[in-house]
Amino acid sequence: MPKTHLEFYDAHGISPVHYVVGDTQQHFERRASLYRSLGLISLACRGARVLEVAVGSGQNSLYVASLMPASLTLVEPNPTAIREIRELYANTKVAHTKPSLVEMTLQDYMPEHTFDIVLCENWLGRVPHERALLRKLAGFLAPQGVMVVTTLTPTGFLPNLIRRALSVRYCDPRLPFADRTEQLVTMFAPHLATMSAMTRSATDWVQDNMMNPAYFDICLTIPDVLQEVGNGLNALGTNPSFSTDWRWFKALCGEGREFNRHMTGAYQAELHNFFDYQLEFSQPDVELNCAIETSCLVFLDTVRDYESAALAGMDLTDSFSEVIACLTNIIGQLKDFPEQVKAGLEAGLKLLSDEERDLQKVAADSPFSRLFGRETVYLSLIADVTPARFDARG
Ligand SMILES: C[S@@+](CC[C@H](N)C(=O)[O-])C[C@H]1O[C@@H](n2cnc3c(N)ncnc32)[C@H](O)[C@@H]1O
């Protein structure tokens, strides 16, 4: 039974991470907007040595390649993805720096030099060996270099964890891969269609999010990343952007810099704003936010246990009751939250409890069908813990 991203992709000969990009211009504008909020304006890439690990389709790397870095190294071990990356670069008309494709895992990769920019999106999660790989990546950075990784926010993860529980409840995880893909697309394609800016196909999305066994472990939070690499790196930016900094720049020296502590505080103060990608509201109780985050992590474990029991053909009564009890508890914690969030989660709970298990009921328009969290949060970090010393002679 596959456990990791790579084993899962390998087992089914897939790389379910294509962007349905429309035109290249739009794709590049999206990437430019993302990097800009992470402090990576295009000039930062020009002439830089860039590394991207876990490249997937290669479509994101093409934007970086078009900014004319001095070198671009792409590390990707999945044979399907490698084939697609080769095709992409063979066929593109965009002027670019030719990348060097390293067909191996990050575990096996040891570069000959450091990099100014290190990118790794939508792969590394919270399990110990992936945290170790995160530290390995950080070790590749040159002084003043910038690393970009993706994190997950447990509150933003909740709506899709409910979808994952619905996937188990309505669609036996032991069904053949193609059949299950088809049924899950029936359930969730209408949900995905409510997001006008969505760039992944429903098939890719269900395979990577509802079927991928590694999905549960991608829940690596911003504080987790700072704990792993915060001794050598300072938080720089995020997308979505939620941290405002009213501190006077003149106080931001020596011990006063504390960018990681500041980022952690902003994260905890804003946890409520990740539940629904369409909402932003005020909720000043930070302790409540932290308690809800913990409950969402417990929910993650209950959904994983429920799915494991279903895969093992066990009796599901207890594990399913845990899922329901945990979600009911979370909804209780949100009693003062906006109606839109509560109604969405309650509709999800109702679908979970529905005995009929009709896929079309899940697919139908409801307050839950449009509820998606701000799940993935990009984080950039800079290796400026010891700020550069400049020669005053010039
Ligand atoms: C969810 S995909 C993300 C792809 C791309 N970064 C994106 O955001 O579209 C995860 C990627 O990690 C790659 N991957 C899995 N295990 C890896 C490993 N041990 N070393 C390097 N890459 C790996 C997979 O092959 C896949 O391309």
TrEMBL record:
This is Methyltransferase type 11. It comes from the Bacteria. It holds the Pfam family Methyltransf_25. SUPFAM superfamilies: S-adenosyl-L-methionine-dependent methyltransferases (SSF53335). One of its GO terms (biological process) is methylation. GO terms for molecular function: methyltransferase activity. Keywords: Methyltransferase, Transferase. Residues 50-145 form the Methyltransferase domain. It comes from Gallionella capsiferriformans (strain ES-2) (Gallionella ferruginea capsiferriformans (strain ES-2)).
